[in-house]
Amino acid sequence: MRFGPKEIIDKNGRKVILRNAEVEDAEALIEYLKVTTGETPFLIREPDEVTLSLEQEQNFIKDKIDATKELMLIATIDGKHVGNCSLMTIAPYKRYAHRCDVAIALYQEYCGCGIGKIMLQTVLKVAKNVGYEQAELEVISDNYKAISLYKELGFEKCGHFPNNMKYTDGKYADADWMMKKL
């Protein structure tokens, strides 16, 4: 779907532009995936697992633009990509049509500036406007800052997944399933 642009000001007084991802953003989004997966243990892949081709990422972005109920929202500061937040359907079935999945990540240097909160609020409003009744997400159980933000936005923990991820060092991480009625 198409969105924006929308201008916001972060906690540091910087102008942030929120807009849907465009095909021209594909290269920056691939680089973003590579960097952010290395910056935090809370994402689902290892940096070496980001193997998308430029064409694959461009097609993914086109699919999001063409979708009526999905959005890849990106944030930029001075034209530099700083993070993204996605809205996705759970499954293409009528029985799941009321549910959506949201996900967010920012480059670490932009965390704590209020950008993520505004991006999530924006995506949740879009989700409600296109007819979703509940938003869902999965979060690593010891990602306390993210969980605090999700609770502030009205998400509640509804489930727990022990040993959800296994890291390359052999350690495991649990995850929580959270949901918000829209």
Describe the model:
- With 182 residues, the protein is an alpha+beta fold.
- The protein has one domain: Gcn5-related N-acetyltransferase (GNAT) (Aminopeptidase, 3-Layer(aba) Sandwich).
- It is 28% helix and 35% strand.
- The protein contains four helices and eight strands; from the N terminus they run E-E-H-H-E-E-E-H-E-H-E-E.
- The chain has helices spanning 26-39, 54-66, 115-129, 144-152, and strands at 6-9, 15-20, 71-77, 80-89, 99-106, 134-140, 156-166, 172-181.
- Strands 1-2-3-4-5-6-8-7 form an eight-stranded mixed sheet, with helices on both faces.
- A hairpin with a 5-residue loop joins strand 1 (6-9) and strand 2.
- The longest helix has 15 residues, at 115-129.
- The chain starts with 5 loop residues before the first strand and ends with a strand.
- 25% of the residues are buried.
- The model has no long low-confidence stretch (mean pLDDT 96).
What can be said about this structure in brief?
With 182 residues, the chain is an alpha+beta fold. It has helices at 26-39, 54-66, 115-129, 144-152; strands spanning 6-9, 15-20, 71-77, 80-89, 99-106, 134-140, 156-166, 172-181. The radius of gyration is 16 Å and the shape is globular.
